[in-house]
């Protein structure tokens, strides 16, 4: 296990409370990557040192500690340029990485799908390219774990020319994946039910809610960024009214100062979210930083041009609050309080979704001549609950709004009861 220390540089006006929160979160990230945090350092100054980022006094203080505490990794909160990174490694003689590289490394260990791996590798190379000097061998020199892992089994390439080539290959491959997705999306757009995405800060409980709603076995963990790959499943609303359902998508979480390379390479995943009919923004209300976390996510959603009217804020983990039943009464159609883990408020959430989308739905029966009947195209329009045959006619029981039924009739004809 790697033994690390954290170092941060902050502007003089930054409050200690805020710094503590930032460094505490960085500690969780490092632990999520599998290393131990042995100490924290920070310095307040307004302009970073060109050579070491932090001042020389601080650098030598840290150097002493490395020997005393047997440290083999230093993680900087701030972005390091290649000169600072090289100087620091030369001075400390141990591996030095910044927070962005740490997050990329965590993503590399979590990526499972082909698309996820392509996206992570692209993000890593986009990060590395401007930081390479000459042949850029520095990166691999200190080898080991954190900060040098490629996604899956791939080794990170460290040659500038090869990186550039690889970036263009990865981009092309992702365009292909994106094209496939567009085809799928077109099919999905004509599904008869809404597609709803979970969004939120990492560890807010998105996968826990996903599991609660879909009964799907998904990875749930205290570690940050346990989910990378999007997953789409059906959520049944039979408890409210038989036959109704929607599609739910679990996906990657966010964090403050998300490395821009990741946002860039995860574009396809984020676009999926943009395309959905509704976004459940999951907020961990038990976290003392929840308001800041909420704002960070809102910033990203705004950046993705997602309209506010498409977002429901879901405050999760109310079970860890005192007297949480009082929260439940505060739920309305824009803000809901739940405990995904304890299954509190989930039925209410389903009701709100039901009312939003299916309020004007009714049960209809369509009678269609057998030769006109095409179940696939009907299934894209209407929720089919039953089907039977009598004489030359197919009778289909469906759930639909009146508006959709009128459109359907214009297109396919048939007799509607
Ligand atoms: N007390 C409490 N803990 C919860 C609740 N929901 C989730 N958790 C815990 O919060 C942690 C993170 O949950 P996940 O569901 O993995 O969170 P996530 O949003 O999917 O996180 P990432 O995939 O990493 O972005 C786990 O330890 C869960 O057990 C809840 O309602 N109450
Ligand atoms: Mg998750």
What does this entry look like structurally?
This protein is α/β, with parallel strands linked by helices and 417 residues long. The protein folds into four domains: 3-104, GTPase HflX, N-terminal domain (Rossmann fold); 113-176, no CATH class; 191-358, Rossmann fold (3-Layer(aba) Sandwich); 361-416, Alpha-Beta Plaits. It has 15 helices and 14 strands. The strands form three sheets. A six-stranded mixed sheet has the order 6-7-5-8-9-10, with helices on both faces. Helix 1 (16-32) runs parallel beside helix 4 (99-110) and helix 4 packs antiparallel against helix 5 (114-128). It binds guanosine-5'-triphosphate and magnesium ion. Guanosine-5'-triphosphate binds next to helix 8.
């Amino acid at each position: 296990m790697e033994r690390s220390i954290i170092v941060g540089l902050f502007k003089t006006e930054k409050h200690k409370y805020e710094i503590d929160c930032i460094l505490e979160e960085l500690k969780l990230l490092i632990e999520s990557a599998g290393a131990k945090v042995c100490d924290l350092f920070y310095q307040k100054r307004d302009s970073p040192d060109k050579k070491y980022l932090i001042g020389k006094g601080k650098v030598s203080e840290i150097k002493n500690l490395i020997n005393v505490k047997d440290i083999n990794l230093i993680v900087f909160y701030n972005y390091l340029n290649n000169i600072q990174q090289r100087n620091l490694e030369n001075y400390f003689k141990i591996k030095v990485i910044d927070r962005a590289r740490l997050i990329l490394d965590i993503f590399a260990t979590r990526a499972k799908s082909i698309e996820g791996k392509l996206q992570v590798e692209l993000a890593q190379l986009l990060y590395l390219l401007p930081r390479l000097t000459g042949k850029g061998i520095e990166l691999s020199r200190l080898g080991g774990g954190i900060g040098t892992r490629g996604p899956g089994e791939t080794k990170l390439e460290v040659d500038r020319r090869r990186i550039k080539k690889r970036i263009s290959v990865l981009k092309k491959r992702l365009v292909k994946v994106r094209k496939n997705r567009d085809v799928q999306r077109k099919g999905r757009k004509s599904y008869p039910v809404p597609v709803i995405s979970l969004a939120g800060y990492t560890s807010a409980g998105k996968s826990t809610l996903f599991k609660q709603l879909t009964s799907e076995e998904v990875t749930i963990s205290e570690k940050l960024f346990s989910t990378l790959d999007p997953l789409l499943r059906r959520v049944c609303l039979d408890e409210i009214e038989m036959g109704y359902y929607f599609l739910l998508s679990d996906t990657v979480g966010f964090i403050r100062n998300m490395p821009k390379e990741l946002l860039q390479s995860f574009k396809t995943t984020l676009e999926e979210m943009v395309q959905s009919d509704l976004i459940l923004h999951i907020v961990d209300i038990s976290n003392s930083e929840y308001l800041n976390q909420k704002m960070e996510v809102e910033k990203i959603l705004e950046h993705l041009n997602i309209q506010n009217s498409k977002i429901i804020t879901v405050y999760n983990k109310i079970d860890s609050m005192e007297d949480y039943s009082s929260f439940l009464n505060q739920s309305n159609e824009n803000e809901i309080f739940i405990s995904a883990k304890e299954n509190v408020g989930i039925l209410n959430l389903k009701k709100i979704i039901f009312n939003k989308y299916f309020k004007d739905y009714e049960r209809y029966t369509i009678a269609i001549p057998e030769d006109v009947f095409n179940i696939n195209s009907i299934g894209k329009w209407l929720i089919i609950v039953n089907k039977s045959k009598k004489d030359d006619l197919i009778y289909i029981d469906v759930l639909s709004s009146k508006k959709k039924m009128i459109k359907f009739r214009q297109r396919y004809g048939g007799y509607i009861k």
